[in-house]
Prior knowledge:
Strand content: over 45%
Strand order of the largest sheet: 6-7-5-4-3-9-10
Radius of gyration: 15 Å
Structural class: mainly beta
Shape: globular
Helix content: under 10%
Distance between the termini: 19 Å
Mean pLDDT: 88
Largest sheet: 7 strands, antiparallel
Oligomer: single chain
Amino acid sequence: MSGLGICLSLAAALQGSPVVFVPVTEFTLAWTHSIEKVRWEEDYAVRLDAASGQPVLHAVQARVRGSAAGMEPPFDAVLRHGWYQYTPAITTPSGLRLTRSEFTPDYETCVPGRCQPMANWMASDGGVTLLKACRQPTR
C-alpha cells in the first residue's frame, strides 16, 4: 500500500493549484468545537477499494468529549473514559470539506505518537480545505 495517503487542496483554488500529499494510511482528524470548546476526533484509514482499485477513506471511529448544542452524539454512542464513542454513519466518505477559520484553532492531523496543526502541511485561506484519499502524485 505504499504511495497511499491523503491529498489536501483549497476549495477556492484554481484548477491546477498545488495539492499537498501527506503519506498516511491511518490518521485521526481532530478539532475543537467553535462554540462549546469541546474536542472532537475522527479516526480514518486510507485503503484501496476492492472493486475499483482506487484509494478511499474509511471512517473507523469517532468520539466527542461532551454533549452540547449542535454536537449531540448519535443514539448508539457509548460513554468511555469521558468520550462518547461511536461508528460514523457514513463509513466511506468521498472526501471531507474542512472549514478553516482564522477565528478558531486549526484542525489537527494525528498519526501515532503526534498531532500537528493542518497548517503544517497546508496554510489556510480562511475557507474550505478539501481532504481526500489519494495516491502519491507522480512528478
